[in-house]
Specification:
Helix content: 25-40%
Distance between the termini: 35 Å
Order of helices and strands: HHEEEEEEEEEEEEHHHHHHHEEEH
CATH architecture of the largest domain: Distorted Sandwich
Number of helices: 10
Number of domains: 2
CATH class of the largest domain: Mainly Beta
Number of strands: 15
Largest sheet: 8 strands, mixed
Structural class: alpha+beta
Length: 437
């Protein structure tokens, strides 16, 4: 497919040389021009039914996310027959084709129906047309097409968009100007620069997955004649490996970071501080993604939904951390009732909270042996868990039991249950949003 445009471009170059060789006598070419355009009117259609053959060669394309439009640099190949531009080559020194400026000939008024820049017609620059002796006209202008394409960013940054370019005559019906498709697929002719290690330096952020050209005929209630347009459908997909490092990995990292809040001891004040830090990081990530996708008001990316859910989980973890911190630190004069404490001891064993279980599980005989009647509740940062399941103070006596330790066990159980619940939610979210991770 890529060889055809190259051959076509090479043919245009050869035409320039061949035309120069044939038009060795400028007087003959001048006479031919004068005879052809003596009574030529460029504003009238060549015939009552002018067939315009159409094909497209894509040179480059890019998605303009700010305006939700696709910009395509291409060659639009148009070919039609103008009976007024016929001559006999033998009467003009063997000249069978000439080049003519596009503003001297009639051209089909093909325009982009879904133009993103309304009011700006296609610019042909100083492109020349090729006119053959049988009246055939070949017009291959390089144009930049800028047409609308509503983006669906649900699966951002792995989003795929189906963009459609609609081209047709602006005022003529399908009987007067009949566009015909020469090839059902546009040709891709992008020069690639491949390095020695195989990297494609010409690859942009977007890849063209598929493209096709179709001819559509419409009949409106107001008018019996058909109206014909040509649709060029392009399926483009975002291919930005940098988002793996700037979006996806940070999003997963923020979800994992919240686990630390539940892994810290229930009496550690760092739980609330670390939760607040995680909350700030989540807000910064949402602000960053909002800058990247602020042009999609009707589609919320799944990865943003995941981080927003993570934000609410962080808020919940801070609330739980504050509650467990209060339970573990406040002074208590009365412990938990046995109806609550006994199930807690069983649950703590299942939750692998053996140290906390051993603190509360001392018998009265063990308490009397310790000769350390617990007159007041030590529930501060100085209280530590020992290796043997008892508690002690920094530089203070060993503590065997207290009402406050019952609440410490309750705080540890609540913290561990919340950890399990969060791990379950984290696993479900990773599976639910795996399409964008």
């Amino acid at each position: 497919m890529t060889a055809v445009p190259s051959v076509f471009a090479f043919g245009l170059v050869l035409f320039g040389f061949s035309c120069s060789a044939q038009a060795y006598d400028p007087h003959i070419v001048q006479k031919l021009h004068n005879d052809l355009f003596a009574n030529y009117n460029m504003h009238t259609v060549p015939s009552s039914n002018t067939i315009v053959k159409f094909r497209m060669n894509i040179k480059h394309f890019d998605m303009v996310e700010e305006s939700q439009a696709l910009m395509v640099d291409s060659w639009i190949v148009n070919e039609w027959v103008d009976p007024r531009l016929r001559w006999e080559p033998e009467n003009y020194g063997g000249v069978f084709k000439i080049s003519v400026p596009h503003n001297m000939l009639w051209k089909p008024d093909l325009d982009v129906y879904n133009n993103a820049n309304v009011g700006e017609p296609m610019s042909y620059g100083n492109t020349l047309l090729i006119v053959f002796h049988d009246g055939r006209v070949l017009f291959v202008p390089p144009v930049r097409l800028h047409f609308t394409c509503v983006m669906d960013l649900t699966f951002w940054p792995h989003d795929t968009h189906n963009c459609t370019l609609t081209i047709g005559s602006w005022i003529h019906d399908g009987i007067t100007i009949d566009p015909q498709v020469m090839h059902d697929k546009p040709e891709m002719d992008v020069n690639k620069l491949i390095t020695q290690d195989g990297k494609n330096l010409t690859r942009g952020m977007w890849d063209l997955l598929d493209a096709n050209i179709t001819r559509n005929v419409r009949v409106y209630d107001c008018c019996p004649e058909p109206y014909i347009d040509i649709k060029v459908s392009m399926l483009v997909s975002r291919n930005a490996p940098a988002y793996d490092w700037t979006v996806k990995l940070p999003a997963v990292g923020l979800c994992i970071l919240t686990l630390v809040v539940f892994l810290l001891p229930p009496a550690a004040g760092e739980k609330v501080i670390f939760g607040g830090l995680s909350l700030i990081l989540d807000v910064m990530f949402i602000a960053y993604t909002n800058m990247e996708i602020s042009n999609a008001p009707t589609h919320v990316p799944l990865i943003v939904e995941m981080v927003c859910e993570q934000l609410m989980l962080v808020v919940a973890s801070i609330v739980v951390a504050a509650l467990t911190l209060r339970m573990a630190r406040d002074p208590y004069t009365k412990g938990l009732h046995n109806v609550i404490k006994r199930p807690l001891i069983v649950v703590s064993y299942v939750l692998c909270l053996h140290n906390y279980k051993n603190i509360v599980g001392f018998t009265r005989w063990e308490v009397s042996r310790a000769h350390q009647p617990y007159a007041r509740t030590f529930k501060s940062d100085e209280l530590e868990l020992g290796e043997n399941g008892t508690t002690h103070l920094y530089g203070g006596p060993e503590v065997t039991t207290s009402p406050g330790l019952d609440w410490l066990l309750l705080a540890a159980v609540v913290d561990r249950v919340c950890l399990i619940v969060y791990v379950a939610i984290f696993t479900i979210n990773m599976l639910t949003f795996s399409a964008v991770l």
